[in-house]
Every structure is written in C-alpha cells, then in structure tokens.
Amino acid sequence: MKKFKKVIGMVLALSMVVVGLGACSGKNNDEAKGSLEQIKENDKIRIGVFGDKPPFGYVDSNGDNQGYDVYFAKRIAKDLLGDESKVEFVLVEAASRVEYLESNKVDIILANFTVTDERKEVVDFADPYMKVSLGVVSPEGAEITDVSQFEGKKLIVNKGTTAEVYFKNNYPDIELVSFEQNTEAFNALKDGRGDALAHDNTLVFAWAIENPGFVTGIRSLGDVDIIAPAVKKGDDELKDWINEEIKSLADENFFHEDFKETLLPVYGDQVDPEDVVVEGGQL
C-alpha cells in the first residue's frame, strides 16, 4: 500500500510539473507575439488621446472623438487594420500618459505628447508629427507679456506637462496652481483662481480665440519642442511601423491636410501651419 501511495504521489507530482511547463510555455508564446501581431489578432488598436484639449483631442457634443491627434489615429487604424473604425480611443490625462503605456492599457499615446529626455527614459517616441513651444494666456486688461510680471501672481498649469516642468526648473519662485485636467485648469483661469495659464502655445492660441476677454500675451517661451507618438519602452516593432507610416504620409502632405481639417477652422489666419506641422518626421 505504501508503495502504491508513493507511485501515485510521483504521478501527481509529474503531472503538476507537466501542467506547469505547459502554462509556462503558453505564457512564453504570448510574450513572443510581437505588438503588431497582437494588435491584428485583437482587430483593434488602442490609442490614448485627450478628451478635453480642443482642437487636438476632445469629445464633441455627439460623444465622438475629434481633433488633430484623433485624425491621425484614425489613419493609423485604417493603414494597419484596413478600417479607421478599428481604433479604440482611450481618454488620458497628461499625468497618466506614461502609466497607460506601462500598464498596457493602450498601444500608442497620441495626446500632444512632447518629447523630453526624462520621458525618453520611460517610453519610446516615434518620429515627430508636430512642433510646439509654451505660451501664456491671461485676461485682457491684466495681460501678462513677460515672465517678470509674475511676481506676486499665480500661474495655472497642468500636472505632468512641459509647462509645469519648465516653470519649476527655471522659475521656482513663481507660485504654480496645478490641475489634473485641461478643463479644470482653464475654468480656474476664468474664475480668477490664477492670473495666467501656461500650456502649449498651439492650445492657448485656440483657447484665446474661442474665449473673448483673454489674450495670448506670451506667444512663445522656451525652446521649440516636438510632439511625437509614444509606445511602450522597448516596443521597437510598433515604433518602427509608426515611423514608416509617418514617412509615407509625407507623400500626400497628410499633416497639412490634418491641420486644414481640424486646426484651420479654429485658428483661421492667426497661426501659420508651418509653425505647427511636421511632415515625414523631419523638422
């Protein structure tokens, strides 16, 4: 009887080993799949965009995603999966963009993501499709036209943005009032909870045009930066595909067309597309 129990025990142990090996093998097979293969298998691509940053990424009155980034996202889905409707839009905040990539909640971030050395350490950026610098918007009659005017005043910024980092690093004495969402930040400016708001100049141009009583007193601050798609760190396959896509789209002046469809109706003749658009990933 003891011998029989010993044999049964050995059989059970061996079975557990086989099952464990099978599970490990399955896990390795999944991990061995490239990102493009997985996206095609899922028959959708998840792209993180803003929901409250018009005209770049926002949700319209019908509940549809719109904007410059969204226009590009739909083209990615069309060229990768054959149908622009096969994009799943995931709404993100500025401070959550990296986390959404790291936790596999999205495949690509197209949320006005400015390339910085710090961000390059945690995500991989493809080639740029847009350029930008910082701008500052303030009320008419109390217009901020120079950084020196911030003494004793409050500046509104969004958490996790280049504006927040720029002012913390270069002007640590300026009092910053930080918000998670773009809507919160701009409402705070309207309510007088801050004296001015700093953000991408492309955004504050559009906001000031649509909100009478406010002006972009500082139109360009700091260096000219680039905005690019971001993928999970180490995902060279998807990054390389995006780079090839951006290069091929230059043949049809795609991003100028994107500007015409999504930004021109807002900017009118107040913004030169050459100050915003990057074609073929080349500045």
Summarize the structure.
This protein is an alpha/beta fold. It is built from ten helices and 13 strands. The protein has helices spanning 2-32, 35-42, 68-81, 97-102, 117-120, 162-170, 182-190, 201-210, 236-249, 254-267; strands at 45-49, 52-53, 57-59, 65-66, 87-91, 108-109, 123-125, 130-139, 154-158, 175-179, 196-200, 214-227, 230-232.
List keywords for this structure.
283 residues, alpha/beta, 5-stranded mixed β-sheet, 3-stranded parallel β-sheet, 13 strands, 23% strand, disordered N terminus
Helical proportion, percent range: 40-55%
Q: List the secondary-structure elements in sequence, H or E.
A: HHEEEEHEHEHEEEHEHEHEEHH
**Which structural class do you get from the secondary structure elements?**
alpha/beta
Radius of gyration, in Å, reads 24 Å
Please state the overall shape, judged from the principal axes of the Cα atoms.
globular
The major pleated sheet works out as: 5 strands, mixed
* Number of strand elements: 13
Instruction: State the separation between the terminal residues, measured CA to CA.
Output: 80 Å
Instruction: Output mean pLDDT.
Output: 90
What fraction of the residues are assigned to beta strands by DSSP? Answer: 15-25%
Low-pLDDT parts are: 2-9, 11-30
Helix tally? 10
In which order are the strands of the major sheet placed?
A: 10-9-11-8-12
